[in-house]
């Protein structure tokens, strides 16, 4: 594998080009699905579920009963159940610490202000087949901590039914409703509502291009979280980093479907050469999940040499990774200049897999460079803030003339009159 310079624009083509750019065919098809679900409701939902997920699917199977917790736990291997319980505990602790108190204060003239935080009424968590149990925990746990009263899970069905860890995760998190629906049709149904699937206030969770595009298109009729699409990772390492660990991280990401951007960035050319040599000695086609791994490494992975710390950090922030691995000695000094990353994993003892499951942080993170302006899923995604103001009579007496003048300047005479009325004009 070739090592490229950080200033080699041609070699880095595509690496820094984050952002969503869906093929026109996907955009049009998703728009058609959303319109169809809006028009035909359950009939459209059934048609798309049969077409894309389960040929013999019946509408009566859309709502799936969630077993009681003890019954669900007995269906799952003990080590998996214990791991999911540990994951729930750590997610709960991390998200409880994100709670913010309401703000209320009174100005000297008696005007009262408040900023009140209230939970959303209902949310839907999208859980793709791969990693469904953890996807449920990542969406449902912060929603529970925030106080959301109704939590639904959407997951595409198959002829064999749902895997038992998914059912256990729903029971463990206190999910209220589970629906066997997937893809763009599931997002549309949750956002717009059908007879079988009542609408929700917000849809969260990551999925493939169809669900991501559906979330983008239904925003405005329903809330959505970040556009969390295919995984992408940037490893930043110094001369003391372990090249085998770095390659291990690359392979772990590469075995996930849909990887679009994968890079190692360092000021140390010897380290990058060692990583390149290790990759070149691997028979990618012989590895497990080689269908994903070989393509992701050969087509999407870059090894990038920076000439200075400033150049490295500039490239890091332009890359805007969903997941950033900092395998450097002075990681916390780097962090002071990291502005665009979804989740950061520091040191040899923090592999990406810990963030996928047991770290307690939320793995639903902005992808395709959208970390420039978006953030990982957090407690705030499940609350709304309400701004409150109660003017005192003294405040309004002072403000009325200025308000009227500003409104007249905007050619809004009735706004101006509403202000003047407050002091008898």
Roughly what is the average pLDDT, rounded to an integer? Answer: 90
How do the strands line up in the largest sheet? 1-12-11-10-13-14
CATH topology of the largest domain, what is it called?
Rossmann fold
Strand content: 15-25%
Largest sheet: 6 strands, parallel
Bulk shape: globular
Total number of distinct structural domains: 3
Helix content: 40-55%
Main CATH class of the largest domain: Alpha Beta
List the helices and strands and how they pair.
Elements: E1 3-5, H1 24-40, H2 42-52, E2 63-64, H3 69-74, H4 78-96, E3 103-106, E4 112-119, E5 122-126, H5 132-146, E6 150-155, H6 164-173, E7 177-180, H7 183-192, E8 202-204, H8 209-218, E9 223-224, E10 232-237, H9 243-254, E11 261-266, H10 269-281, H11 290-300, E12 301-305, H12 309-319, E13 323-327, H13 331-335, E14 343-346, H14 352-356, E15 383-390, H15 393-409, H16 413-420
Parallel strand pairs: 1-12, 5-6, 5-8, 6-7, 8-9, 10-11, 10-13, 11-12, 13-14
Antiparallel strand pairs: 2-7, 3-4, 4-15
Walk me through this protein's architecture.
- This protein is globular.
- The chain has 16 helices and 15 strands.
- The protein folds into 3 domains: 3-20 and 230-359, Nitrogenase molybdenum iron protein domain (Rossmann fold, 3-Layer(aba) Sandwich), CATH 3.40.50.1980; 24-224, Rossmann fold (3-Layer(aba) Sandwich); 392-423, no CATH class.
- It is of the alpha/beta class and 425 residues long.
- Strands 1-12-11-10-13-14 form a 6-stranded parallel sheet, sandwiched between helices. Strands 2-7-6-5-8-9 form a 6-stranded mixed sheet, with helices on both faces.
- It has helices at residues 24-40, 42-52, 69-74, 78-96, 132-146, 164-173, 183-192, 209-218, 243-254, 269-281, 290-300, 309-319, 331-335, 352-356, 393-409, 413-420; strands at 3-5, 63-64, 103-106, 112-119, 122-126, 150-155, 177-180, 202-204, 223-224, 232-237, 261-266, 301-305, 323-327, 343-346, 383-390.
């Amino acid at each position: 594998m070739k090592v490229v310079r950080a200033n080699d624009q041609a070699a880095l083509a595509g690496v820094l080009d984050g952002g969503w750019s869906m093929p026109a065919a996907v955009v049009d098809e998703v728009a058609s699905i959303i319109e169809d679900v809006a028009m035909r409701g359950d009939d459209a939902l059934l048609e798309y579920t049969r077409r894309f997920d389960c040929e013999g699917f019946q509408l009566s199977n859309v709502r799936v009963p969630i077993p009681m917790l003890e019954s669900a736990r007995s269906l799952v291997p003990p080590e998996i159940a214990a791991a999911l319980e540990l994951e729930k505990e750590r997610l709960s602790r991390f998200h409880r610490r994100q709670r913010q108190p309401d703000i209320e204060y009174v100005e000297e003239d008696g005007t009262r202000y408040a900023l009140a935080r209230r939970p959303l009424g209902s949310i839907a968590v999208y859980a793709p087949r791969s990693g469904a149990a953890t996807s449920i925990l990542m969406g449902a746990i912060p929603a529970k901590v925030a106080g959301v009263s109704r939590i639904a899970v959407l997951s595409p069905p198959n002829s064999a039914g749902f895997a038992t860890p998914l059912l256990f995760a729903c029971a463990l998190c206190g999910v209220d409703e589970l629906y066997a629906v997937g893809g763009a049709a599931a997002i549309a149904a949750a956002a717009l509502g059908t007879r079988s699937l009542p609408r929700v206030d917000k849809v969260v969770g990551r999925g493939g291009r169809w669900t991501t595009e559906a979330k983008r298109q239904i925003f405005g009729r329903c809330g959505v979280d970040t556009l969390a699409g295919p995984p992408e990772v940037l490893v930043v390492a110094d001369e003391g980093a372990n090249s085998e660990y770095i390659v291990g991280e690359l392979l772990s990401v590469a075995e996930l479907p849909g990887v679009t951007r994968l890079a190692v960035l360092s000021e140390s050319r010897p380290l990058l050469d060692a990583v390149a040599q290790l990759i070149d000695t691997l028979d990618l086609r012989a590895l497990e999940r080689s269908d994903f791994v070989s393509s992701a490494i050969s087509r999407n992975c870059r090894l990038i040499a920076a000439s200075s710390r400033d150049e490295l950090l500039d490239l890091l922030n332009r890359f805007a990774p969903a997941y950033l691995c900092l395998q450097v000695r002075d990681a916390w000094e780097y962090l002071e200049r990291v502005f665009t990353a979804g989740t950061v994993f520091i040191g040899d003892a923090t592999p990406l897999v810990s963030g996928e499951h047991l770290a307690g942080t939320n793995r639903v993170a902005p992808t395709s460079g959208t970390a420039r302006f978006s953030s990982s899923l957090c407690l705030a995604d499940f609350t709304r803030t309400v701004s409150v103001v109660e003017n005192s009579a003294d405040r309004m007496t002072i403000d009325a003339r200025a308000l009227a003048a500003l409104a007249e300047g905007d050619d809004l005479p009735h706004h101006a009159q509403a202000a003047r009325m407050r002091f008898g004009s």
